[in-house]
Structures are given as structure tokens and as C-alpha cells.
Design a protein that fits this description.
alpha/beta, BirA Bifunctional Protein, domain 2, 4 domains, six-stranded mixed beta sheet, three-stranded antiparallel beta sheet, 12 helices, 13 strands, 17% strand
Length: 404
């Protein structure tokens, strides 16, 4: 397939293969049953796929030699070979021979027993192969990502450089990668939330927004990139284009919610980082990290990433302690008979996005109703879709300056 003119037509002289040293059968097949040039099969000790207990086995990797223009190391560097840490030889295909069972307690793969039912797990890197065809320096320097990056460039005075890596390039890449992932996920029916796959989507959106700020992009911008993603993938994924409006609305709403508290959160984080550096500290306190999460919606992971950029880490133990203390306070409040008169199970178990903004403002001029809690026709506490004049209900807003 890789060398066939009817398929990809790659030059066999530029293809190399790596095998696990103990997998003599794979090496023999590559050398005798293919038309790979002599000397293009390398034995590499790391060619054993093993992620813990369960199926594992040796693997073969196929590399493409992109030539001297991509060589970033001297010829005599120990990493200058197919499979080494270099830019010249690009892995485009991986073949895993799942033939062993990594049982609990075993640490030496030579002791793994054989699987009763063996299989081959193989896969090609689409973006990597496209970068070969289009002579892109990275996966992002192809028509799968560049249109998104070029559209993002129009929102800032910063420029994406295809010739070298930089922090600016990283921000462009993060935005392009995350908006594509989020567009497909929401198109498949997933929604931003605080749990499960929804949490992953929310984190991707917020991380992309933060990188937008690094590019000096203000306001909501991610939703405007959705049509670009849809156009790129339309020939194989027309459903994304069909659902563009819906996807845009969901992303725009999530962006707006995060941007409402982002400015204050970033200011606080900058102050925390500056104070830590001024005092010679190497980490951000758990209390500060928790405040960023609780007040400004900064997930711990995002705080850690921002701290890492400043060569700091975060006191995760202290963060977890602050989180646990807040949970205990919340439980105590729910069990208190005088605690705002809230006694029904619906409110106790209710999970809706409602952010406390009282640290930076004492009023909210506009808020969205996140939930209405009242009684149904049988007098049982329940979530309601509407409330009419004369009813007694409790209303939860998406943001509030009041602390219960």
C-alpha cells in the first residue's frame, strides 16, 4: 500500500522499519518477503508494546526518511536513526503483535505467557502521512490544520511560523487541535459538563480560550472556527457541516461563561505566580489553586499548566485538602435545619453550573436561570421547566454574588 502507485506511491528507498530484537520472525519477514532495501530494518529494544496488565507484544514501526532538510542532529548523534528522537525519520505506521499476556506481578516481558488468541493491531497516522505528502514540518503544517491556524491568525497580530517551534506556535496548535476535537465531540452528542466526557470537552474549550488570551485574542472566538473545521472534513464527515449552527451555539455559550470569570482569574494567577517567585517559592499553594478553581472555574490541570510555564508546580495535596474541607462544609450546611431552609433531596443532589462571583463583584446585572426547583402537581419536590405567578420556587442562576 505505501509503495504501490495505485495507493501512496512512496519511494521504498525512504522507508525504514524497526523490530523488537527478540522477534526474529518479524525481522526475517521484513528482510525476505518485502522489497525493502538491505540495511533498512533496525532492531530497537523499545519495540515492545506494553501498557500494564493485559495483552502485550512486540511491534514493528515504519518510518519515512524526510531527508537532510529535516535533520536536526549530527550524523554521529546516538539518536540519529529510525526510531530515535529526531525530526528526520518520521513514524507513519505501527504494527503490534499482541501475543503475550502481562499478568499481575510480572515485570519481565520474557516471562509473559502466550495469549490463547493472538491478534495484530495495526494503524497508520493520517496526519503524519499527510505531512509527508505535503512536506509539512509537523502534522499542523498541512491542509488538515493550516486553514484553522490561518483563520486564527486573522484574530491577532501574531503569526504562525512554519519554520520553527515557539510558544506562539504552540498556542496556534493547541487552538487548532482542540477546536477540531471539540467540534467532533459535540457533533456526536457530547456536551460540556463537570463530569466524564463532558469534563474533557469543557477543559479543552477552556484550555483553547487560555491560549487565545496568550495570542491577545479577546472575547469569544472558538465558535467562529467551527465552520472552518466543517469545511475541511466535509467530504468524509458531512454531518459536522450539517450541525455547524448547533455546535457553534454550544461552544459560544461555554466560551462566554468562562470569559466572564477568566479576566479576574488570570489576574489572580499572575499575582500568585509573581508572589511565589518574589519570595523564592517553587510552587503555588493549594489554597490559591483551589480558589482559582472554586471562584474562577480554573480546573487544577489548567493552573498546573500555567504554573509550569513559569517553572513552578502546584501543591496538589493542599488543593485536595481545601477541596475536602469545602465538601465537609457543604455537607454540614445541608444537614443544618436552619441552613437557608433547603431540605429537599432535589437541591441536595442537584448538579448545575452556578459560579460564585462575589470575590470580585457584589451584583450581577444579567444571569441565566440554570434550574427551577419547586413542587409538582402531587406536592413532591421536583425540577420544573417553568413557574407561574403565585408559585413558591427556588431559582438557581448560572452566576451569583451571594454565598450560601
Amino acid at each position: 500500500m505505501l509503495t504501490s502507485p495505485e495507493w501512496y506511491g512512496l519511494d521504498k528507498e525512504k522507508l525504514y522499519v524497526t523490530v523488537y530484537p527478540r522477534d526474529k520472525e518479524a525481522k526475517t519477514i521484513w528482510e525476505n518477503d518485502t522489497d525493502l532495501p538491505a540495511g533498512h530494518v533496525y532492531e530497537v529494544e523499545d519495540n515492545f508494546w506494553d501498557i500494564g496488565e493485559g495483552p502485550s507484544g512486540p511491534d514493528s514501526e515504519i518510518f519515512f526518511d524526510r531527508g537532510p532538510a529535516f535533520q536536526d542532529l549530527p550524523d554521529d548523534d546516538p539518536e540519529m536513526y529510525p526510531g530515535g528522537e529526531n525530526e528526520r525519520y518520521l513514524e507513519i505506521w505501527n504494527i503490534v503483535f499482541s501475543q503475550f499476556n502481562h499478568l499481575p506481578g510480572l515485570t519481565d516481558n520474557t516471562q509473559y505467557p502466550e495469549l490463547p488468541h493472538k491478534n495484530i493491531d495495526t494503524g497508520m497516522g493520517l496526519e503524519r502521512l499527510v505531512s509527508v505528502f505535503q512536506n509539512g514540518r509537523t502534522n499542523f503544517d498541512t491542509d488538515l490544520f493550516l486553514p484553522i491556524i490561518r483563520a486564527t491568525e486573522k484574530l491577532t497580530d501574531k503569526v504562525y511560523d512554519t519554520t520553527q517551534d515557539s510558544e506562539t506556535n504552540t498556542s496556534f496548535k493547541v487552538i487548532a487541535d482542540h477546536i477540531r476535537a471539540v467540534t467532533f465531540a459535540i457533533g456526536d452528542g457530547a456536551l460540556p459538563s463537570n463530569e466524564g466526557r463532558g469534563y474533557v470537552i469543557r477543559r479543552l474549550i477552556r484550555r483553547a480560550v487560555l491560549h487565545g488570551r496568550k495570542l491577545d485574542i479577546q472575547g469569544e472566538f472558538l465558535s467562529g472556527l467551527v465552520p472552518i473545521v466543517a469545511d475541511i472534513m466535509a467530504s468524509y464527515y458531512p454531518e459536522v457541516k450539517e450541525n455547524t449552527d448547533k455546535i457553534q451555539k454550544i461552544i459560544a455559550r461555554e466560551e462566554k461563561r468562562f470569559n466572564q470569570t477568566l479576566t479576574g482569574g488570570l489576574a489572580l494567577l499572575r499575582d500568585v505566580i509573581a508572589e511565589a517567585k518574589a519570595s523564592g517559592e517553587k510552587r503555588i499553594s493549594g489554597a490559591a489553586a483551589f480558589k482559582l478553581s472554586d471562584t474562577y472555574g480554573f480546573p487544577l490541570e489548567l493552573t498546573q499548566e500555567q504554573a509550569a510555564d513559569a517553572n513552578l508546580d502546584v501543591d496538589v495535596v493542599g488543593y485536595n485538602q481545601a477541596l475536602q474541607e469545602q465538601k465537609e462544609r457543604a455537607r454540614a450546611a445541608r444537614s443544618n435545619d436552619k441552613s437557608m431552609g433547603v431540605q429537599n433531596a432535589v437541591l441536595t443532589d442537584l448538579h448545575v453550573p452556578s459560579e460564585y462571583v462575589g470575590w470580585t463583584q457584589t451584583e450581577v446585572k444579567q444571569a441565566t436561570i440554570a434550574a427551577i426547583v419547586g413542587q409538582d402537581t402531587q406536592g413532591i419536590d421536583a425540577l420544573l421547566d417553568t413557574a407561574t405567578a403565585g408559585e413558591t420556587v427556588q431559582v438557581i442562576f448560572d452566576q451569583t454574588p451571594f454565598l450560601c
